[in-house]
Amino acid sequence: MNDRPRVHRRAAAAVLLCVFAWLAAAGCSGPAPIPVPAAKESAMAWNRRGLAAEKRGDRDGALSAFREALKIHRSIEDDSGAAVSLVNLARVHRLGKELVPARERIDEALPLVSPGDALFPEVAFEKGKIALAAGDLPAAEAWSGKAVAAGKGAPSGRMLNLLGRVLLLEGKGGEARPRAAAALEANRMAKDSAEEANSLRLLGDLAAAGGDRPEAEKLYLQALAVDKEIAESAKIAADLRALGAAAAARGDAERAIAFYGRAAEVSRNGDDPEGAAAALSEISRLRREGAPRER
User: Fold this and answer.
1) Whole-angstrom distance, CA of residue 88 vs CA of residue 246
2) What pLDDT tens digit does each residue of the chain (295 aa) get?
3) What is d(CA 145, CA 125) in angstroms, rounded to the nearest whole number?
4) Can you tell me the distance from the alpha carbon of 137 to that of 162, in angstroms, rounded to the nearest whole number?
């Protein structure tokens, strides 16, 4: 049996580490820890509740918990703790496609951290994600670049993935490829399965953009295998749609329709009607027009 840890695609997990990182007293070894003040312990508990709510899909519960944590942090002028809560709030709003409040929350967090602060890479990363969601590629490149420059250790692969994706969207495949390769290596070293799959998918997109369709399909299949291990429905559907597009580009309409059909089924059962509609639309197009013959 594969012993790959089940690491879900939740940036919240990395931010949760930050929640504890700013409290040196929470260390596991060394001298007896300094007691954590009751207010900080309460704020940490609210952050944990928010992360748990987000994981189970309770968006309103997550927002409520993170707001309560933010209120406590602000009541004791704990800037680091407030920044963590603001990043968490920004992420939940972004994932809910509420970009205005997402931008407001992350902009509140920025003055609370300096470029040398341990929390800065997370703030810059979320700022880059929000810019990407808004379609502002120059800003997304700038902030993801800052996150990469400041980020160290396990989160670096996630940040390299973001920068690589932005560069690809900007048509800078030559610059994106080494970032994606470095991201894959970092994520495998960190045993971050979800981000490893993202790296593989990004490399597949780069191969497809460069016309190397067999290599793209190989990479998408690798990403699919990882995403199935960690049971990420939305990412499984994305892999299958990418495989469908690769097969269509190779002129194999039958194989493409099969992949898109699987993607539609996954999305339909994963409560993603938009993903299902996108896959079904491609099936209709292929049945109507067929796939171009590969040259």
Assistant:
1) 36
2) 444 433 343 444 444 444 444 433 333 444 556 777 899 999 999 999 999 999 898 999 999 999 999 999 999 999 999 999 999 999 999 999 999 999 999 999 999 999 889 999 999 999 999 999 999 999 999 999 999 999 887 789 999 999 999 999 999 999 999 999 999 999 999 999 999 999 999 999 999 999 999 999 999 999 999 999 999 999 999 999 999 999 999 999 999 999 999 999 999 999 999 999 999 999 999 999 876 665 5
3) 9
4) 11
Distance CA 95, CA 62 (A): 12
pTM of the model: 0.85
Query: Which residues 6+ apart lie within 8 Å of 114 measured at CB?
Result: 120
Q: Which amino acid is it at 171?
A: G
Encoded tokens for 40: 């900080």
Give the distance from CA 61 to its chain's centroid. Answer: 21
Distances (CA, A) of 32 to 18, 26, 27, 35, 40: 21, 10, 9, 9, 18
